[in-house]
Design goal:
211 residues, mainly beta, four-stranded antiparallel sheet, 17 strands, 43% strand
């Protein structure tokens, strides 16, 4: 599979979805919604113990989605539900509890099940107890976005509302990298509004309070 998502939590690695047939980056003809896990058992070498296919799949085949772990739950947001890059993006957001053995509970839509707009190839990150969906593109592959959406999960992992931040990226980005350090979001490279590769690194204000 290509364009699968990888998340590490509590000694387990989760791989989600991706394209199982077709040439990257845009000629996907068969998508795969399988979730697989393996446990890192050797702290010196990091060698995986084995892969296990999760019993619970997320409900919609997609590529270009993004995922993150927060407070014992794994979240998947956005992505392309079409087999091309990308004529039908989705705003759907789902979450599942991570069990102590690394398996996943059932997937559910968040109460506010959708991002404020359809998005694919953006990045979902967590800072200060809040989830942030950064940039990406909509149903038109040439329509890159600078918006940042955010939602704060409750005690049971659900998100009752998503909103669009007033402080978006300085410029549109899609297919970029992102990470979090000391409650700041970092956005690295990606394609700009002309679909040109960039070397820019953006970083957010301190988000230790979330929201």
């Amino acid at each position: 599979r290509w364009d699968s998502q990888g998340i590490v939590n509590n000694g387990f690695v989760f791989t989600l979805g991706g394209c199982s047939y077709g040439l990257p980056p845009q000629d996907c003809t068969t998508m795969n919604r399988v979730v697989q896990t393996f446990q890192l058992y050797n702290n010196y070498s990091g060698s995986p113990k084995s892969y296990t296919t999760g019993a619970n799949l997320f409900a919609t085949d997609r590529i270009g989605a993004s995922s993150v772990v927060l407070n014992g739950y794994i979240y998947v947001a956005g992505g392309c539900t079409s087999a091309t890059d990308c004529t039908d993006a989705t705003s759907n957001t789902q979450y599942a509890a991570i069990n102590a053995d690394g398996s996943l509970g059932s997937w559910s839509n968040t109460t506010d099940a959708t991002l404020p707009a359809d998005r694919a190839w953006g990045q979902l990150e967590a800072a200060g107890g809040t989830l942030y969906y950064i940039g990406g593109q909509d149903d038109t592959s040439t329509n890159e976005q600078s918006t940042v959406s955010y939602g704060t999960p409750g005690a049971g992992g659900d998100i009752s509302s998503w909103a669009t931040a007033t402080n978006g990226l300085p410029a549109a980005r899609t297919k970029h990298g992102a990470t979090v350090w000391n409650d700041r979001l970092y956005v690295v490279g990606g394609l700009d509004s002309t679909a040109s590769e960039t070397t820019t690194v953006y970083y957010s204000p301190d988000l230790s309070s979330g929201g």
